[in-house]
Amino acid sequence: MGQRGLASRVFLFATLLFAGPAHALVAVEEPPAAETASLGWSRGPGTEMCATAIQLGEEVEAILGRDVLVAAPDAELSLEGRIERAGEGFRAVIAVTRRDGSSEGERIYTHPGVNCRDATESIALILALLIDPDAEPPSDEPDPNATDPNATDDSPPAETRSEPVDDTVAPFGLAVDLSGLLAAFVTPSAAPGGRTAIHLRFPSGPLPPLAVVVTGWLAPWSRADASGGAWVDHLFVVGGAGLCTIPSLTDWLDLSICVMGEAGGGFVIAERTLVPDERERVLAFFEAAITLRAHVWQALTANLGASLVVPFRTEPWLATGNVYWRPDPVGLFVFLGVGFDVGFGR
């Protein structure tokens, strides 16, 4: 090896010896890992149509653009939220706790609208900002200046994102309506009375809720008059069952549309001069009813409705061989009352 080759090797060794450590001292700072969170979410009475925990979690991760929701033992942040009715609107309370047990207080959001679904986006944004304060909600507006470098003139149009399907399943529900009743055309005269309807609703997915209804009505007095001042008083008591569909009109108002079959009896309870040949009769009806039910406060409801009643038997009632009353082929009920609702509320 010549002197020139030896000198070159010594120079290279010296360069690595003194220059290498200087480069090794330069460290690349890694960005901190994004925090993860667990989400607990509950819905109070009257908020069954608000977003579920799964739907809310999907909204949060869509805003943040990444998966951040994990099981509670693996989360740095615990978010416990609840939504409930607040007057005509809704109120959401979110408690924030860190893994070490320290509390970061509560966040309260009040939504004045009557549609609980409209509050979902705002609540999801609040949750996303609690997880990542630097988060920026994705814009729905496309950038007009953005181009796809892989696109060609023959490329098909970009696939648009479809809106998520609302697959909320309405829970079981029980509603009891107690109403004052006015019956006409199926009783000898317009008869006041009472009506009870018990609705049991079943989960129905995206379809309008379906319910089985059990009904009963009582008209304790109506009078059939005859010539010569004679009269006969009647009592009617009827019960039945049917099927209803109960679509929601707003968060506080629903519409009940029912068809029912009913059976019962009519009884003579008082008479003057006229002696009835028939003191009682078995009765059967077909009824189609429509009811507006307003959710007044928590489980308390008010209802207003009407129904058409078709008797299956319209033979005349007889007394001393003469006709003194014949039911009309179609009757009318009008009813107004209050009720108790568990699960039908919005």
Question: How would you describe this structure to a colleague?
Answer:
The chain has helices at residues 3-24, 53-64, 120-131; strands at 37-43, 77-86, 89-98, 103-111, 173-184, 191-202, 210-225, 231-245, 253-272, 280-297, 300-311, 317-319, 322-325, 331-342. The protein has 3 helices and 14 strands. Strand 5 and strand 6 form a beta hairpin. It is mainly beta. An 8-stranded antiparallel beta barrel has the order 5-6-7-8-9-10-11-14. Strands 1-2-3-4 form a 4-stranded mixed sheet, with helices on one face. Mean pLDDT is 79; it is low at 10-33, 141-153 and 155-170. Helix 2 packs across helix 3. It has 2 domains: 37-131, Double Stranded RNA Binding Domain, CATH 3.30.160; 173-342, Porin (Beta Barrel), CATH 2.40.160. It is rod-shaped and about 90 Å long.
